[in-house]
Design a protein that fits this description.
Number of helices: 5
Structural class: alpha+beta
Number of strands: 6
Shape: globular
Strand order of the largest sheet: 3-2-1-6-5-4
Order of helices and strands: HHHEEEHEEEH
Bound molecules: methionine sulfoxide
Distance between the termini: 65 Å
Strand content: 15-25%
Helix content: 40-55%
Length: 176
């Protein structure tokens, strides 16, 4: 037999769904707007960290790591970010999820950082992470890294959004 739920239940469910599901499609549009308003790649990167952190409720730390020019061995250096300060300001390509994404040139999504031995801890609250490489003329030039206080925060839609933002930055850096 079907259980009838009071109207209040459905109203609460709808309100919760609205609050907890920031739309990646809205963030995509905002990223496009920011791109057209930014005069430099730096402005775009700084703006994207603020925009993604503000619009996407589960994106608790949003930052860029860029490959240091002429560093030997290659090194990722922390660039613009929004969120708590991190002890990892420079990361080698053989270290962490960040190093793995930069050296493989592939997006890495970690649903539970506690279960990934590569993970370099930035904050005790982080539970999941996505790292997307940024390509400039076919070569990895850096990456966009996002940490969440929630397990498995990054769905296929989130991945699409973060990869789109990383592409915007790559194109901007190419036109420098
Ligand atoms: N967790 C990353 C290090 C960077 S912090 O998340 C800001 C990693 O494992 O490479």
């Amino acid at each position: 037999m079907r259980t009838m739920r009071p109207r209040r239940f459905w109203v609460t469910m709808i309100v919760m769904a609205t609050m907890n599901s920031p739309k990646t499609s809205d963030a995509l549009k905002e990223a496009d707007r920011l791109n057209s308003e930014s005069r430099t790649a730096n402005q775009l990167m700084q703006g994207l960290t603020v925009l993604l952190n503000k619009l996407m409720l589960k994106y608790n730390w949003v930052g860029f790591y860029m490959l240091e020019p002429d560093a030997n061995p290659p090194m990722l250096a922390l660039g613009h970010y929004t969120g708590a300060m991190t002890p990892h300001t420079r990361i080698g390509l053989n270290q962490g999820i960040c190093g793995a994404a930069a050296s493989s040139g592939k997006t890495i999504v970690v649903d539970d950082v506690k279960k990934d031995p590569r993970y370099l801890a930035c904050s005790l609250e982080t539970q999941s992470e996505i790292v997307v490489p940024i390509f400039v003329r076919g070569e990895v030039a850096g990456e966009l890294d996002i940490d969440s206080h929630f397990l498995a925060a990054f769905s296929a839609d989130d991945r699409e959004l973060v990869e789109y933002c990383a592409k915007l930055v790559g194109k901007r850096l190419e036109s420098k």
